[in-house]
Amino acid sequence: MASKDVVEYASPARRIANVAVVVFLAVYLLWTILPIFVMFVSSLKDLLEAFRIPAVGDWSGIALFFDFEPTFKHYTNLFVNLNFGVYFFNSVAAALGSAVVSVTLGATCAYALSRTEFRGKKDLFFWIISTRMAPVVAVMVPLYAIFRSLELVGSLWGLILAYTTFNLPFAIWILKGFFDNVPFAIEEAQMVDGATRMQAFRSILPLVAPGIGAFLVLCVLFAWNDFLFASIIGSGGAKTLPVATKELVQPQNIQWGSIMAAGVVTTLPMMFLGLLIRRYLVTGLTMGAVRE
Amino acid sequence: MATQVLPGGALRGDAPGGINPVGIMPGFVTRDGVTVLEAEPLARNPEPSRRYYFYMMAPAIITLAAISLYPFFWLIWMSLHDVDIMAGDKWVGLKNFERLFTRDAKFSNGWLLLIQYSAMCLFFEVLLGVLIAVLLNRSRWEKVLVTVFLMPMMMAPAIAGLVWYYLYNGTFGWYHWFMQSVGLLGETSILGSPSTAMIGLVLVDIWQWTPLIVLITLAGLKRVPRDQLEANMVDGAGEIRNFFQVVLPNLYPFLLIGILLRFMDNFRFIDSVLILTGGGPADATNILPVYLFDVSFQYFKLGRGAAIALTLLVVTIILGMFLVKIFDSPAARNVGRTEG
User: Fold this and answer.
1) Fold (topology level) of A76-285
2) Touching B: A residues 257-286, CB under 8 Å
3) Tens digit of pLDDT for each residue in B286-330?
4) DSSP-derived secondary structure letter, B6
5) CB atoms within 10 A of CB B269
6) ipTM of the complex
7) A111 contacts in chain B (CB < 8 Å)
8) Which domains are assigned to chain B?
């Protein structure tokens, strides 16, 4: 902002304002990381330690939160006794499967949409984006009925198809905007030199590869974080991590240590991927409407 | 009549029917009173290329039709039937809808709660998001802080729901302890009482999705035209006046996009609500998608569920039309502009 160019006099009022800003941002920072921090720490606590809490109003009791013997037994328990290896694989297979299908089909379709004009293109476009924006529960009602008759409920294939209902329109929509930014002159030059259309298409792929990769990762993220489809369409044979984690919540004897450990296992890879594609995050999360 | 000379767009070959790369010959063409330098193909060669593009589009379009258009018609069919897994489906006409609009208090209540829930989430997210973005925009720590701030968005909403469920717990939840200690809450947890449960859900949504508004606003702030700011300052505006007179008007298209996206997401996702309250206590948080979930997948009244789903879809489609309009507007084109 322009204010950087202006000489700022550190008047007392401004100094107070600056302190207020720092305090406000610090509080917001705390508010943001606290739940994540609690999740990490609680995953390392023994069952009884996780339930300890100071008396109401006893502020020095906060120390109780840090008073524990770190243990990794919840993590081993997850993978040894609770089958989380299988659920992890299901999550990876369903998310990656739908992401690859969506981006492959989506990229070719988006390229063609970007390079051609025809009547009804706007309507086609609207249909594509409205598919993506449809509420998941609403989509699931007919999908469940259809998948049940096709015996796809409880299978990884069913889950991959279900995720494709939101990932494919996303991929088409966002990659079309991406191809629009690649000048046609590049392909044209190739074709003047005698390349076929397919070769011309291939010639611009290196240019868009980073973006395509980033949006593939975003598709993985959307599918990985899904709970609704997985809990109904995937129930039985294709349990994914969020569903398996939710199932650890029993009416009695809730295994908080295991639940938090499962939360960490589910969250950590996505946080890592999110950082990896940080540059494309805003574009992806706003359906390409906002670029950073 | 104004005559404008523009370098020919047709060199990009986006004239209908594709291009003939060899036959390009530039010339001036007047169209609608505007003279354009345009390359008119000497010999039109439209058909083969169009078919080529059609083949490229077909797999995706057919797949999408199979998994979205076909289920949509199936949904309409279901909404007109009494769907029963055991006994088979029975035609009931518009009875499902009649029941929703005349006798089903949970349906109208669900809509009301959904609007209420979304409005509360959006109000606080936009307020907080803009404030934080403005403060971050001139902070030295912008990059680091933004990276930390967007961590909640990467978390599965279901997992976020479970973590908050733990924090809110009435006997061992740390947030419950905190709220009790500062005197905000009594013995019952925030989710346990019908009067506070909705606030509990809104807090989780604010925690997870304010960062999105921060990111969108930050992108907008980087595009506030400097000359406008400087001109306003020459006129004697201070920082606060500058914000309301120059920055905020420039942010509107960005905020509008953010608000619509969040609004639709509140319709789309109910993962955390299902886990935190499941619609309870006493239907205080039974927002429409949750009610739809219960009807369809707890009681397996798929016909009635389909009718509810259709009403939800219609509203989403109308919202989507607004969104696409904004995407297409000149203001939004400015929003989507690559870094200038």
Assistant:
1) MetI-like fold (1.10.3720)
2) 259-260, 263, 266-267, 270-271, 273-275, 278, 281-282, 285-286
3) 999 999 999 999 988 899 999 999 999 999 889 888 888 877 765
4) B
5) 23
6) 0.91
7) 56
8) 9-41 (no CATH), 52-97 (no CATH), 106-335 (1.10.3720.10)
